[in-house]
Design brief:
Layout lengths: L1 H6 L1 H21 L7 H14 L1 H14 L10 H15 L1 H10 L2 H25 L3 H20 L3 H17 L3
Length: 174
């Protein structure tokens, strides 16, 4: 998180502006469906996929500047918890907005979807490596699949499934 704030301020600011713009545009486009969990899920997906560059850069930083972290004596569960905490802090403005602007159930579901999709995007870097073009192809395909599944009202199932998929990818990484 320090590396993002210290050296990637412009990227962080542009990401947050794009996230705010996507929230505003989706609320303007679907102003009649503010209470629908699918709208909150679409907002969560757009915010999560708006943070792809920051997630990629955090992965690059960890690979090149923190290679000793993999040798520390703690398990994969603690590494997963550390990632949840890191991306929870990174996505704090969006998570707070989702929890307060929507109803409790829709807000909690959308916040869980936002965090789980971001964790899945980070876990995909373990499989793709630091190849940006291949990673972005997978990200675009994943976005389309998740958006379509969200439109069929599978938002809660997606939140749980993405968190499980991210955990499986992390635990199977060697």
């Amino acid at each position: 998180m320090y590396e993002i704030i210290a050296t990637k301020r412009i990227t962080y600011l542009l990401t947050k502006l794009a996230s705010a713009a996507s929230i505003a545009l989706l609320l303007l486009a679907f102003s009649d469906a503010r209470a629908d969990v699918r709208l909150a899920g679409m907002i969560a997906l757009c915010c999560a996929f708006g943070h792809v560059i920051l997630v990629f850069q955090a992965g690059v930083f960890e690979l090149f500047y923190l290679p000793f972290v993999h040798n520390l004596p703690y398990g994969r569960g603690r590494a997963y918890g550390r990632q949840v905490l890191l991306y929870g802090v990174l996505l704090l403005p969006e998570l707070a907005w989702l929890l307060t602007a929507n109803g409790f159930r829709a807000g909690l579901t959308a916040a869980a979807l936002l965090l789980s999709v971001t964790l899945l995007l980070r876990a995909l870097l373990y499989r793709t490596g630091q190849h940006m073009t291949f990673y972005l192809r997978i990200v675009v395909g994943l976005f389309l699949f998740l958006l379509l599944a969200n439109l069929f009202a599978l938002t809660g199932l997606l939140a749980i499934g993405n968190a499980l998929a991210a955990g499986i990818l992390l635990f199977s990484y060697r």
